[in-house]
Design goal:
Blueprint lengths: L1 E6 L9 E3 L2 E3 L3 H13 L7 E6 L8 H17 L7 E4 L3 E2 L5 H16 L3 E5 L19 E2 L7 E7 L5 E2 L6 E7 L5 H11 L12 E4 L2 E4 L3 E5 L2 E5 L2 H21 L9 H6 L36 H7 L4
Parallel strand pairs: 1-4, 1-5, 5-7, 7-9, 9-13
Antiparallel strand pairs: 2-3, 6-8, 9-10, 11-12, 14-15
Helix pairs in contact: 1-5, 2-3
Length: 316
């Protein structure tokens, strides 16, 4: 089962923008439309539940409401007798909007849900290294929950042959969370390759790096009010990746095997993704980070190849 979450009423709204003739919608209805079309449409036959969270929250302070929204949904899913095998959310926060203690509390809840067999996915954001959206900044802006080491953060690519990084793909290093053991080899290799001078002092080099994976997030078409429209964003990428994982889980369950659950240790231990080596995620008056061979804070480990993922999951 896939659970797709829309958090209404919590996040500061942003204006729609245009990039390469592709629309970034600023309405919850368009977001819901996108998510449903690319979960139900791709993972055909897999049960999908759409959850809208937030309208009834009476918290007087926006940041309290935001944190409560994230806790509400993870606690709700954790309380289910049979939680979903995949959960995707296309929204996020600037990490500093929450206190370190509150962010840690939410992150630990994701860990508990992952331990029960749920793959927790979040879109990394659409602002390159400047956060959720392209904004003015003097240091790089990490996003949350992507910085939590117990979620799989999904960035964006564009084009085919060659597939390259989408410049809006948010990525970087968490200020709150240290790099987890499953990732340290990958982040250390990247940081050694770029050297200590590149973007020195603008990010936490010992932090958890994100995204973990990436896939198409530009010129993604949806049907809205009977009209085909192209959209862009990592909010396209996360539900598509969720559908891929759901299809793998479907095959695993039919074969009498458990679902994949928390994905990251498995993903970082297998070299089965399409490595993206062209592109960057500029912002904060810099060129941001560049892609390179192996993991990078633009496209993570790369984009999925279903045949290779099947083999890595032990499917014949």
């Amino acid at each position: 089962m896939i659970v797709d979450v829309l958090s209404l009423g919590y996040l500061p709204s942003y204006q729609g923008s245009q990039q390469q003739n592709t629309t970034v919608f600023n309405s919850e209805q368009s977001e819901a439309n996108l998510d449903i079309q690319y979960t139900v449409g791709l993972a055909t036959g897999v049960p999908v539940v759409f959850v809208s969270v937030g309208d009834d929250n009476q918290a007087s302070h926006l940041l309290v409401a935001v944190g409560d929204a994230y806790l509400d949904i993870v606690n709700y899913l954790a309380g289910e007798d049979s939680p979903p095998t995949v959960w995707t959310t296309s929204y996020g926060l600037v990490e500093s909007m929450l206190s370190p203690a509150f962010a840690d509390r939410i992150c630990n809840a994701y860990a508990a849900l992952g331990a029960r067999g749920t793959s927790v996915l979040f879109a990394s954001g659409d602002g390159g290294i400047s956060g959720l959206q392209n904004e003015t900044c003097s240091t790089f802006v990490p996003t949350f929950p992507s910085g939590c080491p117990y979620v799989t953060s999904v960035g964006a690519t564009q084009n085919v042959d060659p597939e390259v990084a989408a410049s809006f793909s948010s990525g970087g290093f968490s200020t709150y969370f240290a790099a987890p053991s499953y990732q340290t080899n990958a982040t250390t290799k990247y940081l050694s390759a770029i050297g200590p001078v590149a973007n020195a002092g603008l990010y936490n080099a010992s932090g958890r790096g994100y995204p973990d994976v990436a896939l198409i997030g530009n010129h993604v078409e949806i049907i809205s009010n009977g009209t085909m429209k192209p959209v862009l964003g990592t909010n396209c990428s996360s539900p598509i990746f969720a559908s891929i994982i759901a299809l793998l889980n479907d095959e695993l369950i039919v074969a009498g095997k458990p679902p994949l659950g928390f994905l990251n240790p498995w993903l970082y231990s297998t070299a089965v993704l399409n490595d993206i080596t062209t592109g960057s995620n500029p912002g904060c008056n810099t060129n941001g980070f560049y892609t390179m061979s192996g993991w990078d804070p633009v496209t993570g480990l790369g984009s999925p190849d279903y045949v290779n993922l099947r083999a890595a999951a032990g499917l014949p």
